[in-house]
Amino acid sequence: MKRKAALLLAGILTCSAALAGCSGGNQASNEYVTVGGYKGIEVDKVADKEEVTDEDIDSYIASVQQQNAQQVTDRPVQKGDIANIDFVGKMDGQEFDGGSGQGYDLTIGSGQFIDGFEDSIIGHNAGETFDWNGQFPDPYTGNPEFSGKPVTFTITVNSISTLPEVNDDFVKTVSEESSTVDEYREEVKKTLEESAEENYNYSLESEAWNAVLEKAEVEKYPEDEVNEIKDQLVQQYKDAAETYGMSYEDFISSQMNMDVSGFESQAEEAAQQSVKQKYVARAIADEENLTPTDEEYEEHFKDLAETYGFEDVDALKEAATEEELKDMVIQQIVQEWLADNCIQVVSDSAE
Q1: What CA–CA distance (Å, rounded) separates 62 from 138?
Q2: I want to staple 331 with a disulfide (CB 3.0 to 4.6 A). Which of 15, 125, 343, 350 is the partner?
Q3: How far does CA 84 lie from the centroid of its chain?
């Protein structure tokens, strides 16, 4: 629950609640901010949505195969297996940078290592350690200094696993919607297209939102709110310092490379930016009649609960106040509205 609450707090600190305001024309304001020109604001053109290719689908399914790899215990490594290995490389008896690894999943036959390395693992069982004497290719583009030099790798096979075959039976174990390979490929394509759509929308919303924030003018900051958010940020680092058994001062110095005064000044700036976003979102929502009804808020809360991994809305409301949650909803609605109403322009450098 602490991790979920921390994730939610991170979301809350980028948006927040509001006071009503009124304005005329393409301008919105309240007691704390004024923002003009937000409707139809110009932003740099966002890259078009990526087309989903057969290669993308193959790569996605390959990752699902990896997630469903089955461990092998009754035979040695074969070509096509995934061998989890530790390895230490030496030249002239000395270890060298980039020549060692632990817990590395290597598909035998993938050609990720120099010639002979992967073949040397074939025939070895889990738990075995052996030396393999090889030679870097000449030339070796990975590190020209190694070109043609002999090398010895000490390799330990930690475990062996094999990928399931992609057939209808496999599909039925990994999908609730598809029962054949062809159906699953269509399902994966739809998933990837939805992801591409979400990435595009996110990029456009971010561009529009940041452009609006740049135009917004802060009339004054509600000091009590700024201090509350600043204190929350500082407390997070104090808690982290305690977890690591360090003083707050030493933790800030080692992790942030600054003194406490500098860090807390940055925390205050971050709190001010959070408050600014909160009131900009509220001002636009009020001006454009975007504020949800109570029933609509509850639907948005369900989405938030799912996004942040809470069991239900009640659990979500235990981690944040209803006012904070409404702030998050308002900011998302405003960002989507701004993206729908912005104008994308191609910069001279992109032409």
Answers
A1: 32
A2: 15
A3: 26
